[in-house]
Amino acid sequence: MIIQSIQTLWQKLQDTQPLVHCITNSVANNFVANVCLAVGASPAMIDNKQEAGNFARIASALSINTGTPTPEQALAMQYAAQSANAEHTSWVLDPVGYSEILAWRSQIVDDLLQYHPTIIRGNASEIASLAGAQSSSKGVDSTLDSNQVIDQAQQLLGTCDCVAISGMTDYILSKALGIFAITGGSNLQPKVTAMGCALGAVCAAYLGVVEEDQSPALAAIAAHVHFAIAAQIAEEKMIAQNVGIGSFQILFLDALFQIAADDFEKVEINQIAK
Amino acid sequence: MIIQSIQTLWQKLQDTQPLVHCITNSVANNFVANVCLAVGASPAMIDNKQEAGNFARIASALSINTGTPTPEQALAMQYAAQSANAEHTSWVLDPVGYSEILAWRSQIVDDLLQYHPTIIRGNASEIASLAGAQSSSKGVDSTLDSNQVIDQAQQLLGTCDCVAISGMTDYILSKALGIFAITGGSNLQPKVTAMGCALGAVCAAYLGVVEEDQSPALAAIAAHVHFAIAAQIAEEKMIAQNVGIGSFQILFLDALFQIAADDFEKVEINQIAK
Amino acid sequence: MIIQSIQTLWQKLQDTQPLVHCITNSVANNFVANVCLAVGASPAMIDNKQEAGNFARIASALSINTGTPTPEQALAMQYAAQSANAEHTSWVLDPVGYSEILAWRSQIVDDLLQYHPTIIRGNASEIASLAGAQSSSKGVDSTLDSNQVIDQAQQLLGTCDCVAISGMTDYILSKALGIFAITGGSNLQPKVTAMGCALGAVCAAYLGVVEEDQSPALAAIAAHVHFAIAAQIAEEKMIAQNVGIGSFQILFLDALFQIAADDFEKVEINQIAK
């Protein structure tokens, strides 16, 4: 039944091409824009403080990512999140690098929480740190498995409607839908930079098409399933063609774009708690 | 006859590899640099206010794009345009996102017009807005067709030597050569981010090799034809190989690079007004 | 014997995946991160002044590149270099665009020299300029051959432990190992933007795994050999598949990633001075 809802949402994404306002990092922005286009959305990367607040008002959804903040961009994030909150526009917070060692951006993220993100998406280290646990990371990469931080992630459900933890298995937590586990994808995903960042923006793309009476967690689930299937297909082709990680990235974009409704049945998705 | 002029210009581009000074957005800069290299130019992305004015003096041509401006970068644009104007160096203005909702950058663009851009290049929404018409857009994407804004675009020919409107059909307007319509390309181009931004830089690359007695409109025509053919070839190969949008981008770069003089005959180009 | 040391170092890179702190330019950052991942390192692009100094303390190595500096980023470079120097962490300085015409960044580079970079890596024009010679360049591209500037480069060996000059033949200079010449690679490398920038970061990746009793020059040699072989393989495949420069970039990433220990024997490496 969940698969059917995802397929319907995906079709709506293709039909309406929602405008997704992205404020992301300088490593990711080209890839994020191309991923958004490949899944069917219309991205606009407006990240200056002069325009971001105003622009967030007209977007279907907003995605904020703290990979390479500057003081100017941090203000753009604040103004955009403020607008989104005021206009009841759904938005995604991707707290890249949240940790003790990267204290400045972590404070930026803390400040953004007041604007009630719809989805908080991150790797296990980031989610655990954000939930207040002592955690460790390797730069911006996680040193924890996603299943280790589910309990801690629950604590964030007062701050947002949905928490998405990416890893070998992805976990999507919400009060509305409980906990969904998505298994699949490829263990090569961490070998392509900005994969997680792009996933955050795709969550926003799907948020741009969820109905009023649907949970935003459905958008997060759809985004993670779409990603996992594309990564699976890309890895299979990479191995079959005996190519490497450069080709994997291209095959992944191809798969995001070429995906058909049937493909959504290829991934393992389980509701592990209600 | 126009095809022959384009072929000659293209050959000159290969032979001289002009230095093209690009001030572009953070989503586009890697792709723009690679596109410039693929067509035969030598790009340099100098976008700080301390160096941009000085550097524009030694470049063969300048390309300015307002996709993700910062206050610092806006000054770099101003100083570079000022230098280009003072040195009679040709330059391209690509007013990405020009619209009422993105008022700050639109003011930056307005201020740059005093330095008389050689070519103004944009999509239909941007060109219409810049010409003072009420217009609408979807973020940084056009909601108008290129043929709807030709009349409005004419009004910009006092401000610049040539206006290039990209779309399903591209229109190149100038007092010297009238209106040229270029049909071809691929409708997948808007599905790859920064395609338009790269086209602006390629206009600058061709401006770097036009002779004194040639119209800058010839550079714009050559750039659009080069782009359209490459996109056509890329789409054909994408379909033949049953791949997707990630591969399309790579095949497009391949085609820009592998193009031969004969290929320039593959596109439909018509002078629709004198 | 040198090949064996390189193979051992490469294996260690795969096994330990050192955290490489990169402060690089906005054209290169996505490609640099993907190249670092492809060779086996774990990159983190922390380039704000609030966090860079602190982060450099926990990284295995640091790479600083002056391609598109901003005043804020220049401070991040300074703080990171200062930390690296204080912690005896090895770091690479890639003085992109060092020249008279780009005076502002050249001053930034001059200021960074006080923190004693482990490796200075650049093209022939940059290295000659930095060594105080009158030099010329075409934007950020070299107009000199690498073999023309070996003598000048020697003068930098007081300021750093190793100088790496890239070109048709790469030269790696150090007091410990003399001068090594690496021939191979592909003459298509300058046709892909940020190739040199990525090479600087790969030098840092290898610095992250050299032993205390090994010369940092070994890291530079390993990085240049790894790059040269991958470029060779990529060009061979590009020609065999009759594709172009877009595919070359992807094939290059594939080759960096798919390289096997045996492949390191494919490149010509000679100690031309002791």
Automatic annotation (TrEMBL), chains A, B, C:
GO biological process, one term: thiamine diphosphate biosynthetic process
InterPro entries in UniProt: Hyethyz_kinase, Ribokinase-like
Residue numbers binding substrate: M45, A194
Pathway of action: Cofactor biosynthesis; thiamine diphosphate biosynthesis; 4-methyl-5-(2-phosphoethyl)-thiazole from 5-(2-hydroxyethyl)-4-methylthiazole: step 1/1
Keyword Magnesium: yes
Enzyme class: transferase
Keywords: ATP-binding, Kinase, Magnesium, Metal-binding, Nucleotide-binding, Thiamine biosynthesis, Transferase
Molecular function in Gene Ontology: ATP binding; hydroxyethylthiazole kinase activity; magnesium ion binding
EC number: 2.7.1.50
Pfam family, one: HK
Record flagged with keyword Signal: no
Cofactors demanded by this protein: Mg(2+)
Transmembrane segments: none
Binding site for ATP: R121, S166
Reactions catalysed: 5-(2-hydroxyethyl)-4-methylthiazole + ATP = 4-methyl-5-(2-phosphooxyethyl)-thiazole + ADP + H(+)
Physiological role: Catalyzes the phosphorylation of the hydroxyl group of 4-methyl-5-beta-hydroxyethylthiazole (THZ).
HAMAP family the record matches: Thz_kinase
NCBIfam families linked: PRK09355.1
Similarity comment text for this entry: Belongs to the Thz kinase family.
Protein name in UniProt: Hydroxyethylthiazole kinase
Source species: Acinetobacter sedimenti
